[in-house]
Amino acid sequence: MRNRVFCAFVALAVLFCSAFSSSASSVEDWEKKWDSAVSNGSVVSLSPGSDETQIRFRFLAPLGSKPEFRCADHENLTDADALDVQRTPTVTGKLCCTVSADGLKPDTTYYYAYKTGDAWSAAYAFHTPGTALTALFVSDSQIGRSGNWRDKAVLLHDVAGWDTTLCEAAGTFPEISLCLSAGDQAEIGFSEKQFRLFLAPDVMRGLPIATTVGNHEFYYPCLNLHFAHPNRYGCSILHSLGDEPYYFAQKNALFIVLDTNDPIAWDHEAVIERAVQSYPDTKWRVVMMHHSLYSCEDSFDDGPNLRGRLTSVLQKYGVDLVLSGHTHRYSRSFPLWDNEIAQSGVTYLEGGCCSGCNCKPSPETLPSYSAAGYPKTNPVYSVLRFGEDEITVQAFAVEDGESVEIDSAAVLPCPNNDEDAHSSQIVRILHGALSLFGRAVSVLFR
Q1: Average pLDDT, stretch 304-319?
Q2: Domains of the chain, with CATH numbers?
Q3: N or C: which end of the chain has fewer CB within 10 A?
Q4: Is the pTM of this model over 0.85?
Q5: Contact residues for 216 (Cβ-Cβ < 8 A; gap 6+)
Q6: What is the spatial distance between Cα 144 and Cα 195, in angstroms, rounded to a whole number?
């Protein structure tokens, strides 16, 4: 009897979810959803796994509850085996629940549902990448940034803008199977409400997202509580409370996510070195960070300061593309090598602001290293396609709820003159000794 009731519930829930259509979202729409969005303490997130055969889920549950999770490649989840739910008590008095779905097949739709109390969630669907990977790149959704972060009207404005961008991207490019977010997902790093709103859009129930620690998030562990990123690196000398660096592979691309609130180049090289050693055969190497090394606003302090410490490391390990945000401006650099424009080198893509919370125009006169910018104040998103010979980049502004292309380019392989790149023995010894404090803090993230 219990299974029959569950089966009927799942069928209705899947029907409801499949009826969702990607379209522009409005403040009025979110006014109606407000109470359920901000009160949903168990909203689920999807994160990429170690590779494309794995998806990781995370949600919060009340202490003392017994969460359950089911996932299968068919809608009748009553026939699915229950997946193991790892439960960890948190400093916020909740259970942090992590689930890993392994052995996923390519180009396949999977369904899942979870339970944190007496009732099961709706049944949601996600689709694994096929022969090639298409990813959505965004930055600075920063829910709460458009005004006083305590005001409901501000939060409604920002989540409606974020939802509109997601709907436009997913509706225009249904082949997207991964989202890359370059930091400042929320304005206030300890605001549970803002993170719930960031996760609230329907598109997020079926789209794995890799997030980055922004300068608004490094001081409180909300990112870690809400996202189950793979291969977290806990051996940094300086360790943010927000989250840890991590890395993963999807198809022919390696993604390395850094925390550039940490100014120590040794920390960043250690992450990149471990990632490259773990996935040596990927065609493309992509680094994502919050702060922009080559911003179209060249006077911005963070970029030039970080540039001198990181560009040589990125070149050393043959990084092809660097994704960043922070300035709320969109720009794309020429391929750069030793700070000069080159035929082949590292391309730097600055994501702009994806929610409309605080969009800024690129300057009319761009720095010499910038190939493209966007001189308006609309939300921006980019679509990345990882082919065998090039990464194609298309950037779009969301103008009046419609996607308008503002830039396109092909990223070619970066020359890697040192295929056996690694840090020196003395650096490894010193880094290991100095990272003891970071290792201790990292215990909080396990």
Answers
A1: 88
A2: 2-126 (2.60.40.380), 133-411 (3.60.21.10)
A3: N
A4: yes
A5: 142, 184, 186, 187, 188, 189
A6: 10
